[in-house]
Amino acid sequence: MAAGLARYLASMEAIRQYFNQLVPLEDAEWQAFAACLTKRTVKRKEKILLLGQVCHEVCFIESGSFRFFHEREDGSEWVTAFFFAGDFVTNYRSVITNQPSSHHIEAMQDAVILSIQKADLFRLYLEFHALDRLGRRIAEGLYLTVAHRLDAFLYESPEERYEALLQRNSRLLNEVPQYMIASYLGVKPETLSRIRARR
Amino acid sequence: MAAGLARYLASMEAIRQYFNQLVPLEDAEWQAFAACLTKRTVKRKEKILLLGQVCHEVCFIESGSFRFFHEREDGSEWVTAFFFAGDFVTNYRSVITNQPSSHHIEAMQDAVILSIQKADLFRLYLEFHALDRLGRRIAEGLYLTVAHRLDAFLYESPEERYEALLQRNSRLLNEVPQYMIASYLGVKPETLSRIRARR
DNA sequence: ATGTTTTCTTGACCAAAGTCAACCATTTCT
DNA sequence: AGAAATGGTTGACTTTGGTCAAGAAAACAT
User: Fold this and answer.
1) Which strand (E) or helix (H) includes residue A184?
2) CA pair distance B184, B182, nearest whole angstrom
3) Which nucleotide is nearest to A160 (CA to C1')?
4) Cβ of residue A143 closer than 8 Å to a chain B Cβ
């Protein structure tokens, strides 16, 4: 399995690059983190976290993609975020509060992930200043992302959100069905269809 | 000014309590933080941060109250949050990204605040693991708050948001004008008035 | 107390997105 | 290839909140 090993090493390198952008890590700090990662495969439509479960892990996506979505009592689904190869995916809210997740996390394609358990993560935070700092930077990043998304919902029309998404991530439109894009934009599929028709 | 001194000491104690809930601090860590705080007074309707300015400080409110709001091109104002005695107020997004604020921060009453400059804060983060950790906990808290607010906008009606606010903070309704509550709930004053009328 | 702002309410009308239903188009399965 | 499932479009109608305008009520200043 030389190809598998090569991809694994590439993933590890990708994670280290990602971290180094936020906080430069010494080898010992990095090794301690890397030693906690375990690899597994996930099938398309398989959920790695169910609504109602407490989330115990943070996953790096080596390949494949995921959607993070809420399911309402009436069965309707509302996508909060999409995650692709190179991203981390978790319900960090559930991880830090220990409360049941209000969202599902589901693979949109077959995927390979590297995960770290929250117990290990919290131990690393205590042990290494640099990793706690990294955790701060990551939490700050999550805050910026969700604050920006809130602003988009408060101050922009669905059409403006769609335009902004096009600018930011036109690739997304080819990779996920339009009804999930609509859901992410906070409108019904019919509405997105009409937005697209009148451009 | 014995009364002023007493209130100042009470504020310092309040901040230390607040921090200790998140991360227990040793005396040296606390002293280093406390030494960075400066006190000042703010008049009603005075802005401590203007839209377009980069935010350079984090403020603890000893007395008084503030609103954090966005102003649109058409002049309409949308309140994102209210802050009262015992809270910290800042545009943390602007602090960590160094980008101009997209919101104003304005005193709703005469106020007294204790502020720390971001340069000092970042220095303390580097110097003390416990303070970096505290910063992580605070960033996590901001993330939880804004994620919850986003969920409220995505999954609840204005009426449900109003009910939830009543449960959570009925005091608020007496302390700030109703049109600001409406703004915080994301509706026009007329709409909030009608929501209240039909209960 | 009186007059002036400021805040809140109500009504008539409008615009935007949701609902429901029918119908294409495309992909997938056998 | 043909059937079935999935995804996307369009039309008629409804619902919700916004807009505009007039007034009532409350807060504040002189």
Assistant:
1) helix A178-185
2) 5
3) C16
4) yes
For domain B2-128, give the CATH superfamily: Jelly Rolls (2.60.120.10)
Q: Does A78 touch chain B if contact means CB atoms closer than 8 Å? A: yes
CATH for A2-123, options being 2.60.120.10, 2.40.110.10, 2.130.10.10, 3.40.309.10 = 2.60.120.10
CB pairs under 8 A between A and B: 76
Q: Which of residues 20-59 of B touch A (CB under 8 A)?
A: none
Cβ contacts of residue B112 below 8 Å, gap of 6+?
B7, B39, B40, B41, B42, B61, B62, B63, B64
Cross-chain CB nearest to A78 (options B149, B154, B186): B154
How near does any CA of chain B get to the CA of A4, in Å? 35
| pLDDT tens sequence for chain B (199 residues) | 566 677 778 888 888 889 999 999 999 999 999 999 999 999 988 999 999 999 999 999 999 999 999 999 888 999 999 999 999 999 999 999 999 999 999 999 999 999 999 999 999 999 999 999 999 999 999 999 999 999 999 999 999 999 999 999 988 988 899 999 999 999 999 999 999 999 7
Tell me the angle at which helices B189-197 and B178-185 cross, rounded to the nearest 10 degrees: 100
Does residue A151 belong to the interface with chain B, where contact is any CB pair within 8 Å?
yes
- Global model pTM greater than 0.85: yes
| Amino acid (one-letter) located at A187 | V
Contact of A167 with chain B, judged by CB distance below 8 Å, is answered with no
